[in-house]
Specification:
It contains 19 helices and 21 strands. It is an alpha/beta fold and 592 residues long.
């Protein structure tokens, strides 16, 4: 189906190329099990036949290759054709996953465990979850039908639920794999297919490539056996077990006097968060009414990601009216957690690195075993957690971006990434979990409130002890994906020798696996003043992401401590502005 890849130099007016494209599209259409996408593709084919250049371009894009299966599974825009998220693509993915489990994963597991019966090794159990996006339930049922049709066993969560519930269910049910149908915080037109293996962690290399290879062997949807029944629809036992585990991470003797505004951003988090907070005794949880119920259109936000401008407006507006202690937001599948706090200038959303430092401080303060506990964060996250761990005598590790890496750190006690992802209970959920993170930040805030202190006071304490660690990030979004490769190639071919006038002391091409990490497409700059910059393509969206961090000492002289801290933060902000200006120029799609 990779028509465009083989015809990149062809003219759109080439009649032979057009006829071949239409033939490939017609073959796909006839194999497509979904009436809606068949109709969509039929219209595009007709427009291309009529000489409509726009319709031709759209058709060409749909057949520019199969939607790539990687360590994020699948994620893309809904629509017809192999380069979109649709039932035909999902059925192929489910078939590839199931055959990988039967032919490679379970035999290897049986051999490793010393000889499980062959017939048992050939019957994988897959648990499937889904959110409330368009077609999530359809894709989840198709997955179950394929798993059972190919001789496996499937269990599906009872209704749209958060991703952490699915991640928990894998080990709770003893499954061999898990599938979560979600596009997380992507735009409304997207959906995705997230795959976990039996240890409860997201897939990494080489499993992703092995699954992709099996997907590539699927000749047609018609060739994939699909059952009409035979999978189990789970009841609320899994959710209740997850909630019991979540509740257990909160100290029952800590204060509960806390008023919280919560938004689920039209996602699936409201029910689970409300039940979790009520179970531990936080009774003052006030949802944002306009965003509490799942809605795949996300009508009140332009982009359903708490990090994006405007996404928190409704919750901040409610906070200004009701005067809570904190605001907590989850993204649509509730695996991320954002926090906003009141301040002299109004409500301020904390950066992901700030919440990571707060949760790290809270967990350290509760006591951890320095002989076994490991804290971890991704390389694009702040180095403050590492400084805190060094101070406390706790081992700290940096990983590649993504919880597929963080969750695999041996002995992990706490892990986070700056994109609002936090793993506060790795023995329960080996992935980021916005529900348990919300519980723990609420416990911390309530404890501080009882002491007459705030989360901001803890951040001040950390700055006085370790310095101001100021982080910032921005993205270069593109329509033409080739621009991403061009930006990265330009930075590699002509490495910057200074950034914002500060000498680059070390330049790491992470694609070469420098620094002891697995190879990944990214660049790291370490400057003479301890500033760090990382540039990498996004793994889930068409953009290049740039992460910057400056470290500014506060000093320990006898002068007024608040004034020293304020001055250090001003200096850090000035340095950051200069770094960002330089990096915006270096990563521009129009460098001239």
């Amino acid at each position: 189906m990779e028509y465009a890849a083989a015809h990149q130099g062809d003219s759109l007016t080439d009649e032979a190329a057009l006829a071949e494209l239409i033939e490939v599209a017609q073959t796909w259409l006839e194999d497509d099990p979904d009436e809606e996408t068949r109709e969509e593709l039929d219209i595009l084919i007709a427009r291309a036949r009529e000489g409509d250049a726009n319709g031709h371009a759209h058709l060409l894009n749909r057949f520019s290759g199969m939607l790539e299966f990687g360590t994020a599974g699948l994620r893309g825009e809904l629509g017809a054709g192999p380069n979109r998220m649709n039932r035909a693509v999902v059925i192929r993915a489910a078939a590839g996953l199931t055959r990988y489990l039967i032919e490679e994963y379970l035999p290897a597991k049986a051999e490793q465990e010393g000889g499980t019966a062959a017939e048992e090794a050939q019957s994988p159990l897959v648990v499937v979850g889904y959110d409330a996006r368009r077609n999530s339930d359809v894709f989840a049922r198709d997955t179950c039908a394929v798993v059972v049709g190919l001789g496996g066993r499937a269990k599906i969560l009872p209704r749209p639920l958060p991703t952490p519930v699915l991640a928990y269910a894998i080990r709770h049910l003893g499954a061999d794999a898990g599938v979560m149908v979600t596009a997380s915080h992507n735009p409304p037109q997207d959906n995705g297919y997230k795959v976990y293996l039996g240890d409860g962690s997201q897939i990494v290399s080489p499993s992703d490539a092995q699954i992709a290879r099996h997907i590539g062997r699927v000749q047609s949807v018609a060739s994939v056996p699909r059952a009409d029944e035979g999978w189990e629809v789970l009841d609320d036992e899994v959710l209740e077990a997850y909630l019991a585990r979540a509740v257990s991470i909160v100290d029952p003797d800590t204060p509960r006097d806390l008023v919280v505004v919560h938004t689920a951003l039209h996602g699936v988090g409201t029910e689970t968060v409300q039940k979790a907070f009520a179970a531990v005794g936080f009774t003052e949880l006030h949802p944002v009414p306009s965003q509490a119920e799942p809605d795949p259109n996300f009508p009140t936000v332009s982009f359903p990601n708490p990090e994006e401008p405007g996404a928190m407006d409704a919750s901040i507006e409610l906070a200004e009216q009701t005067n809570p202690d904190i605001v907590i937001a989850n993204d649509p599948d509730a695996d991320r957690c954002a926090v906003a706090v009141p301040g002299p200038g109004g409500w301020r959303m904390l950066r992901g690195d700030e919440v990571g430092a707060l949760l790290g401080a809270h967990i350290l303060g509760r006591g951890v075993d320095p002989g076994t506990a490991v804290f971890a964060n991704s390389i694009v996250s702040s180095r403050l957690l590492g400084a805190m761990c060094a101070d406390a005598g706790i081992r700290h590790e940096e990983t590649l971006t993504g919880f597929k890496w963080i969750s695999r750190v041996p002995g992990l006690r706490f892990g986070y990434e700056e994109a609002l992802g936090y793993c506060v209970d790795p023995d329960g959920v080996r992935d980021k979990d916005g529900v348990t993170a919300a519980l723990l930040i609420a416990e911390q805030a309530a404890t501080l409130k009882a002491e007459g202190r705030t989360l901001g006071d803890v951040l001040d304490d950390l700055a006085h002890r370790h310095g101001v660690y100021l982080t910032d990030s921005f993205s270069v979004r593109v329509q033409d994906l080739s621009l991403i490769g061009q930006i990265m190639a330009r930075l590699r071919e002509d490495p910057a020798t200074d950034i914002a006038g500060i000498t680059v002391e070390r330049f790491d091409d992470l694609a070469r696996g420098e620094g002891g990490l697995p190879p990944t497409d990214g660049l790291r700059y370490l400057l003479a003043d301890r500033t760090r910059v990382i540039v990498r393509p996004s793994g889930t969206e068409p953009k290049v992401k740039i992460y910057c961090e400056v470290i500014e000492p506060v000093g320990s002289d006898e002068s007024d401590a608040p004034a020293r801290l304020a001055a250090a933060r001003r200096r850090a902000a000035e340095r950051m502005a200069a770094v960002r200006e330089t990096m915006e120029r270096l990563t521009s799609t129009d460098p001239a």
